[in-house]
Amino acid sequence: MINYIWFIFIFVGTIVGVLSGNGSTLSSSIINSTESSVKLMISLLGIMCLWCGVMRIAEKSGLTDKLSIVLRPILKIVFKDISKNNNVMGPMIMNITSNMLGLGNAATPFGIKTMEEMQKINKKKSTATNDMAKFLVINAACIQLLPTTIISIRAACGSSNPAIIVIPTIVTSVTVAIMGLIYCKILQRHF
């Protein structure tokens, strides 16, 4: 559906631009925006490689393992029904830990594995369990201790202090995660 909406925006914008006599402005805007997009992507590539290297060092140094030790007791409270199942808790902890450290690409396979393991113990295969919904909310809220992607984008766009968003990001993502869990708890009574 979103593809149709974007097509309509682009098509109508192009027609209006040509009919209003702004065809040359339209074509120069297209060229300038594609050029700036390529420059942004190239600068992001270098910055993302740097952050991926830093995150890999954090992973190899055991920082992710230490973070998972802290997370396990919290997740046992949140996911009471599945907390004793190591097949579920192992990939779940790795998913959340990876997301917290800004390793979104590494988090995805762990998230998929977690949902597959939850589905194996699901009694009603056609309906998601409350724990599945909670995990999805936590994964979507994605508590960020180090928002590497946003820092990289800000640096690539010339921000004088790209990391200034770290504390607001932590506060916002924790608030969103807590509110999401509260809403899950409220809604699970009705559904």
From TrEMBL:
Key words, A-Z: Membrane, Transmembrane, Transmembrane helix
Annotated transmembrane regions: 6-26, 38-58, 92-112, 133-156, 162-184
Domain Nucleoside transporter/FeoB GTPase Gate: 42-154
Protein name as it appears in the record: Spore maturation protein A (Gene spmA)
Native source species: Clostridium acetobutylicum (strain ATCC 824 / DSM 792 / JCM 1419 / IAM 19013 / LMG 5710 / NBRC 13948 / NRRL B-527 / VKM B-1787 / 2291 / W)
